[in-house]
Amino acid sequence: MKKLLLILMFVGAIFAADSNNTKKFEVVSIDGKKFHFTVTSRGVLCDEAKGKVLLIDFFGKNCPPCRASIPVLAKIYKEMGDKVQIIALHVQQKLTPRDISMLKKELGINYPVVDMMADGKNYEFVEYLGAVAGWKGTIPFMLFFDKEGNYRAQHYGMVDYKKLKDFIEKLYKEKD
After folding, report:
1. Which of 29, 49, 62, 172 has its CA 20 to 30 A from that of 114?
2. pLDDT value at position 2?
3. What pTM does this model have?
């Protein structure tokens, strides 16, 4: 019971640090698609993910665990794209055209990637979200939000396909 209480307190507190302030962001993916985020005291809303679970993945192209997680995330996105919106935030040095090609062709990224270093708006969003979520720079780092944008969990490290799929299904099936 104590553990559950601590988890609930943490979940409530993680986004409450700036509870009187709602911040809006527009970021652009490496493909030029715009995403509109609202960070609230409860979590994160993404206009382009309405009705879906939102998974935000902080990753880097030079991070072996991140690279190992990409095929898992790509498979989840291919199979569950109607239930989940995955958005990857690249947090290392600016991506080059060669890097982008490698991510797509060699590693198979099929979900949107936002390059933190591509412009000031992307950078501001990643920095703000990371600070609100208590991110310390370790990657891979994932944040999960339910269909209503409520913060639900975070995960450090590589992901297991079955556990990730089951968790997304659980979040998706929960009542609004």
Report:
1. 172
2. 43
3. 0.89
